[in-house]
Design brief:
The chain is an alpha/beta fold. It has a single domain (1-153), classed as 5'-nuclease (Rossmann fold). The chain is 56% helix and 12% strand. A 5-stranded parallel sheet has the order 3-2-1-4-5. β2, α3 (33-42) and β3 (50-53) form a beta-alpha-beta unit. α4 (58-64) packs across α5 (70-82). The protein is globular, with a radius of gyration of 15 Å. The two termini are 27 Å apart. The mean pLDDT is 95.
Length: 153
Protein backbone atom coordinates (compact mmCIF):
# COMPACT_ATOMS: atom_id res chain seq x y z
CA UNK A 1 0.00 0.00 0.00
CA UNK A 2 1.36 3.40 -1.00
CA UNK A 3 0.48 6.41 1.14
CA UNK A 4 1.45 9.95 0.25
CA UNK A 5 1.51 12.28 3.24
CA UNK A 6 1.05 15.96 3.80
CA UNK A 7 3.14 17.77 6.41
CA UNK A 8 0.87 18.14 9.42
CA UNK A 9 0.12 14.46 10.17
CA UNK A 10 3.78 13.54 9.82
CA UNK A 11 5.07 16.42 11.90
CA UNK A 12 2.58 15.60 14.66
CA UNK A 13 3.75 11.98 14.73
CA UNK A 14 7.40 13.05 14.63
CA UNK A 15 6.78 15.40 17.57
CA UNK A 16 5.51 12.58 19.79
CA UNK A 17 7.83 9.88 18.41
CA UNK A 18 4.99 7.95 16.77
CA UNK A 19 6.11 8.14 13.13
CA UNK A 20 7.00 4.43 13.09
CA UNK A 21 3.27 3.66 12.99
CA UNK A 22 3.19 4.78 9.37
CA UNK A 23 5.93 2.35 8.39
CA UNK A 24 4.16 -0.46 10.21
CA UNK A 25 0.74 0.30 8.70
CA UNK A 26 1.69 1.08 5.11
CA UNK A 27 4.10 -0.56 2.67
CA UNK A 28 5.45 2.74 1.35
CA UNK A 29 5.19 6.26 2.73
CA UNK A 30 6.06 8.99 0.25
CA UNK A 31 6.14 12.77 0.52
CA UNK A 32 6.63 15.38 -2.17
CA UNK A 33 9.70 17.58 -2.01
CA UNK A 34 7.78 20.57 -0.59
CA UNK A 35 6.59 18.44 2.33
CA UNK A 36 10.09 17.08 2.93
CA UNK A 37 11.42 20.63 3.07
CA UNK A 38 8.63 21.72 5.46
CA UNK A 39 9.37 18.78 7.75
CA UNK A 40 13.09 19.56 7.86
CA UNK A 41 12.33 23.09 9.07
CA UNK A 42 10.95 21.63 12.31
CA UNK A 43 12.75 18.29 12.64
CA UNK A 44 16.49 17.53 12.43
CA UNK A 45 16.04 14.58 10.05
CA UNK A 46 13.48 12.47 8.28
CA UNK A 47 12.89 8.77 8.94
CA UNK A 48 15.10 6.65 6.66
CA UNK A 49 12.07 4.75 5.36
CA UNK A 50 10.33 7.95 4.21
CA UNK A 51 10.70 8.45 0.46
CA UNK A 52 10.84 12.00 -0.89
CA UNK A 53 9.81 12.38 -4.52
CA UNK A 54 9.32 15.24 -6.97
CA UNK A 55 6.03 15.71 -8.78
CA UNK A 56 6.15 15.26 -12.53
CA UNK A 57 3.34 17.71 -13.41
CA UNK A 58 4.11 21.09 -11.79
CA UNK A 59 1.36 22.78 -13.84
CA UNK A 60 -1.34 20.94 -11.88
CA UNK A 61 0.40 21.88 -8.64
CA UNK A 62 0.09 25.55 -9.65
CA UNK A 63 -3.65 25.04 -10.14
CA UNK A 64 -3.99 23.34 -6.75
CA UNK A 65 -2.03 26.15 -5.02
CA UNK A 66 -4.96 28.43 -5.79
CA UNK A 67 -6.93 26.36 -3.24
CA UNK A 68 -4.37 24.89 -0.79
CA UNK A 69 -0.79 25.52 0.29
CA UNK A 70 2.23 24.26 -1.66
CA UNK A 71 2.85 21.12 0.42
CA UNK A 72 -0.77 20.03 0.20
CA UNK A 73 -0.87 20.82 -3.53
CA UNK A 74 2.23 18.71 -4.20
CA UNK A 75 0.96 15.90 -1.96
CA UNK A 76 -2.34 15.77 -3.86
CA UNK A 77 -0.57 15.78 -7.23
CA UNK A 78 1.97 13.15 -6.15
CA UNK A 79 -0.79 10.90 -4.81
CA UNK A 80 -2.50 11.21 -8.18
CA UNK A 81 0.69 10.50 -10.14
CA UNK A 82 1.64 7.46 -8.02
CA UNK A 83 -1.92 6.11 -7.93
CA UNK A 84 -1.49 6.07 -4.17
CA UNK A 85 -3.88 3.99 -2.13
CA UNK A 86 -4.38 6.90 0.28
CA UNK A 87 -3.42 10.51 0.85
CA UNK A 88 -2.70 11.25 4.51
CA UNK A 89 -4.02 14.77 5.04
CA UNK A 90 -5.98 16.57 7.74
CA UNK A 91 -6.66 19.96 6.16
CA UNK A 92 -10.33 20.28 5.22
CA UNK A 93 -9.74 22.13 1.94
CA UNK A 94 -7.02 19.67 0.99
CA UNK A 95 -9.26 16.68 1.73
CA UNK A 96 -12.03 18.19 -0.37
CA UNK A 97 -9.68 18.90 -3.30
CA UNK A 98 -8.22 15.39 -3.09
CA UNK A 99 -11.71 13.88 -3.13
CA UNK A 100 -12.56 15.98 -6.21
CA UNK A 101 -9.46 14.49 -7.86
CA UNK A 102 -10.61 10.95 -7.01
CA UNK A 103 -7.91 10.38 -4.37
CA UNK A 104 -8.92 8.40 -1.27
CA UNK A 105 -7.90 10.19 1.92
CA UNK A 106 -7.17 9.23 5.50
CA UNK A 107 -6.49 11.59 8.38
CA UNK A 108 -4.26 11.22 11.38
CA UNK A 109 -7.24 10.16 13.50
CA UNK A 110 -7.95 7.39 11.00
CA UNK A 111 -4.31 6.26 11.18
CA UNK A 112 -4.47 6.08 14.96
CA UNK A 113 -7.71 4.09 14.91
CA UNK A 114 -6.25 1.72 12.32
CA UNK A 115 -3.13 1.26 14.45
CA UNK A 116 -5.30 0.45 17.47
CA UNK A 117 -7.42 -2.04 15.50
CA UNK A 118 -4.23 -3.78 14.35
CA UNK A 119 -2.93 -3.86 17.94
CA UNK A 120 0.09 -1.70 17.08
CA UNK A 121 -0.66 0.61 19.99
CA UNK A 122 -2.15 -0.30 23.37
CA UNK A 123 -4.37 2.78 23.55
CA UNK A 124 -5.65 5.19 20.94
CA UNK A 125 -6.72 7.57 23.73
CA UNK A 126 -3.20 7.88 25.14
CA UNK A 127 -1.70 8.64 21.72
CA UNK A 128 -4.47 11.10 20.87
CA UNK A 129 -3.97 12.89 24.19
CA UNK A 130 -0.24 13.20 23.48
CA UNK A 131 -0.91 14.49 19.97
CA UNK A 132 -3.39 17.03 21.31
CA UNK A 133 -1.17 18.27 24.15
CA UNK A 134 2.34 17.92 22.72
CA UNK A 135 1.81 18.39 18.99
CA UNK A 136 -1.13 20.80 19.06
CA UNK A 137 -3.48 18.52 17.12
CA UNK A 138 -7.01 19.89 17.39
CA UNK A 139 -10.03 17.62 17.55
CA UNK A 140 -13.25 18.30 19.40
CA UNK A 141 -14.04 16.11 22.39
CA UNK A 142 -17.16 14.85 20.59
CA UNK A 143 -15.13 13.64 17.61
CA UNK A 144 -12.50 12.04 19.84
CA UNK A 145 -15.09 10.26 21.97
CA UNK A 146 -17.01 9.00 18.93
CA UNK A 147 -13.79 7.76 17.32
CA UNK A 148 -12.59 6.05 20.48
CA UNK A 149 -15.93 4.28 20.84
CA UNK A 150 -15.27 2.57 17.50
CA UNK A 151 -12.22 0.87 19.03
CA UNK A 152 -13.80 0.14 22.41
CA UNK A 153 -12.12 2.91 24.38
Amino acid sequence: MIVVSDTSPLTALLTVGGEELLRLLFHEVVVPRAVGEELLRSHPSLPVWLRVEMVREPMRVREFVLVVDRGEAEAIELAKELHADRLLIDDRKGRRLAAQQGIPVIGLLGVILLARRRHLIPSARVLLDRLRHEAGMYLSDDIVNAALATVGE
